[in-house]
Amino acid sequence: MNKTEEISLISEADESARNYLKSIEDRRVFPDQAALLNLDQLGGKLSNDGADSFETLNLLASVGEAATVTSNGPNYYGFVIGATLPVAAAADRLAAAWDQCASSHVNSPAMAKIEKVAGEWLLDVLGLPIESGVGFGTSATACGMSCLATARAGLLQAQGWDVAEQGLAGAPVIRVVVPETVHVTVKKALKLLGFGMSNVEYATVDDQGRVVPEKLPPIDAQTILCLQAGEVNTGEFDRFDQIIPAAKRAGAWVHVDGAFGLWARASRQKRSLTEGVELADSWTTDGHKWLNTPYESAVAICRNKSLLAKTLNADAVYSTAEDDAQKNITLEFSRKAKGLGFWAVLRTLGRDGVEKLVDQYCDHAMEIAAGVKELGITVHNRVVLNQVLCSLETDEKTREFLDAVQRSGEVWFGPSVWKGRPVFRISVSSWRTQSYHVRKLLSVIDRHL
Ligand SMILES: Cc1ncc(COP(=O)(O)O)c(C=O)c1O
């Protein structure tokens, strides 16, 4: 492909992207059956001689696009997916042209600086210890795994055991305590790290999914205690100020999964929900949920920066780098700058803008909760954040209603299970969602009751 063709191909992609964005308010939120059936056109037998680049792009722009979920729009309330703020999307497009391997300064001075600055701003806006190490990774899942590996290395080191050298066989036992409502991805990280699910101990939670401090299993210097800022169903917070100081005195490592809820730190209205969270040892959060960065932007934050760097170091004879080079504090070696979206959004919104975004989600969730209650729908949670957990009189009605709303294509939210019963979960996490979208949501709900 020559230069003219390359530029023209990229321009076509940009044109399609522009048109997609223009249609984002009015697109179906979930693709219809015909669009789903057409997806078969993307497959078939792999050819020997390949295809024309323009034709490949056109196929993607037509068949692929028609089957997208409009989670980047204002009417999507599923899974805490989050849309993408324009500046972050634009920065991503630029970065695609640069195609930087953002492993360290020598690989990409620009990206190394951007991620360093993004890390500092992030600690500032979240009010976490400024000495912490900040590794930008793919997901809260992957970043949680980095934090938990570091936690285990740290607790074992305190017991005189170097896990990187000596391995796990014969090592002092490290216990793990998690809330009964722990997110599945924390369990996944624990499984991959070899903790074994039957060894994990569960902390009793209350009717909002928060750990009951008085019912915590015994915590000692060989315990990793996982807590939550933003329980996935209710959006609730564990009582960090009541739990963490005692756990720390006992010598435990406290890790906080704050995939979306940690952003409550940025809001003066909501910050008190997170009181004491700054006393933990490690934290994970996502940019791709509440900060509305593009996907694959998450972060592992670890108070003990050198322990994070020691645990995740990936220096090689041909690739030595600074201790806090991103390849040395994340799971990835070759990687794109996953901190770029954080940098672009934090720089553009500033502290006040992030607060406004957080408050906007929470205010809309309150409006939704009030609106659905007026329609006679049961709301199961206190709605302290962005999650509204609902059901109808019977399990069957709940399921049928959800199915009908999803099929409408006008708005979308998903199912969950709360206390063993089917519920539906409305999550607000798109910067595009405004009060008139909330009114639309309520009228769609009303029509399908
Ligand atoms: C509370 C919580 N923790 C962890 C995760 C995992 O995040 P990610 O999808 O970025 O791996 C999620 C959501 O997906 C979540 O809601």
What does the model show?
The chain is an alpha/beta fold and 449 residues long. It folds into 2 domains: 3-68, no CATH class; 92-345, Type I PLP-dependent aspartate aminotransferase-like (Major domain) (Aspartate Aminotransferase, domain 2, 3-Layer(aba) Sandwich). Helices cover 41% and strands 12% of the residues. The chain is built from 13 helices and 11 strands. The chain has helices spanning 3-22, 33-38, 53-66, 86-98, 109-126, 140-158, 163-166, 184-192, 240-249, 305-312, 340-374, 395-408, 435-448, and strands spanning 133-137, 175-179, 201-203, 223-228, 253-257, 282-286, 298-302, 378-379, 387-391, 414-418, 421-427. It has a 7-stranded mixed beta sheet with strand order 1-7-6-5-4-2-3, with helices on both faces. The site of pyridoxal-5'-phosphate has 13 residues, from helix 6.
SSE map:
Blueprint (H helix, E strand, L loop, with lengths): L2 H20 L10 H6 L14 H14 L19 H13 L10 H18 L6 E5 L2 H19 L4 H4 L8 E5 L4 H9 L8 E3 L19 E6 L11 H10 L3 E5 L24 E5 L11 E5 L2 H8 L27 H35 L3 E2 L7 E5 L3 H14 L5 E5 L2 E7 L7 H14 L1
Helix pairs in contact: 1-3, 4-11, 5-11, 6-8, 6-10, 11-13
The protein binds pyridoxal-5'-phosphate.
Pyridoxal-5'-phosphate binds next to helix 6.
Offer a concise description of the structure.
It contains 13 helices and eleven strands.
List keywords for this structure.
449 residues; alpha/beta; Aspartate Aminotransferase, domain 2; 2 domains; seven-stranded mixed beta sheet; four-stranded antiparallel beta sheet; globular; binds pyridoxal-5'-phosphate
